[in-house]
Design goal:
alpha/beta, Rossmann fold, Helicase, Ruva Protein, domain 3, 2 domains, two-stranded antiparallel ribbon, 12 helices, 19% strand
């Protein structure tokens, strides 16, 4: 059956056996696992997951044609949800942490990741995320301070997640062939992390700082705080630094003061 690719859904189906095997190896699936797969497409990864005999497999596929094809191909072996993952990501809460797999559409991949990060008690419901992103996105996720790729996504992900880049995947591993490389990443929720009053406050803070990432941080500090010099001294922050020079911990500290002054 010929599959019509929908560019609007960012569809690039992973077909390379070596990459698919590495994804399964990274997931380390057992017979007691509950699995969620995002964007299964034609079912190449789905089939390999099923070969590991997990307890349950849920797949979320937005494309109605593909969802129907998966139903014909796998029948009752999978639970198919024909929906947008951004509308139902919060519905998969079981009595044990689950594993999430996904070859994510380039156009919404960061939205999917940050949506999961915002879930309260993340480590209670999710054991690990095994995702394929555009390589550029993975490089931003794993970046550390004082490097060019370090930014909002690095900070927000590091706040709640452990992160491990596994492999790079060349364009010809996909159909249709994208113009860019991809990467496989393993993310696992941290068992403990610095609590904030509202997750969106960290997004707000980092957005202000990295809006002009080449400027000194004096400007965003002055924008956020009336007594920005006193607060900078309290946090031992040099106002001549650039946004990429501050650690994740320092952004959390800034966010906490912002919350205290605005609640």
């Amino acid at each position: 059956m010929r599959i019509k690719v929908k560019k609007s859904l960012g569809q690039n189906f992973l077909e390379d056996n070596k990459s698919l095997s590495k994804i399964i190896e990274t997931g380390n699936i057992s017979k007691r696992d509950i699995i969620l797969e995002i964007g299964p497409g034609t079912g190449n990864l789905t089939e390999r997951i099923l070969n590991k005999n997990p307890k349950e497999l849920y797949v979320v596929e937005k494309d109605k044609g593909l969802a129907d094809m998966l139903k014909r191909k796998f029948g009752r072996n999978i639970n198919i949800i024909n929906d947008d993952i951004l509308k139902c990501y919060n519905d998969f809460k079981f009595d044990r942490p689950i594993k999430v797999f996904g070859n994510l559409p380039y156009n919404i991949s960061t939205k999917i990741l940050t949506s999961f990060i915002k879930i309260e008690n993340l480590n209670k419901f999710f054991e690990k995320f095994i995702f394929v992103f555009q390589k550029e996105v993975v490089d931003r996720i794993v970046a550390v301070e004082n490097t060019p790729d370090y930014g909002r996504l690095s900070i927000i992900t590091s706040w709640k997640m452990n992160k491990y880049k596994i492999i790079n995947i060349p364009p010809n591993s996909f159909s249709p062939v994208p113009k860019v490389w991809s990467s496989l990443i393993l993310l696992s929720p941290k068992l403990s992390f610095e609590k904030l009053k509202k997750d969106r406050n960290l997004e707000h803070i980092t957005n202000i700082f990295f809006h002009q990432r080449r400027k000194m941080i004096k400007r965003p500090m002055k924008f956020l705080f009336k007594d920005y010099i006193d607060i900078s001294n309290k946090l031992n922050i040099d106002l001549k630094l650039r946004p990429q020079n501050l650690s994740v911990k320092k952004y959390i500290e800034i966010c906490r003061i912002y919350e205290d002054l605005n609640t």
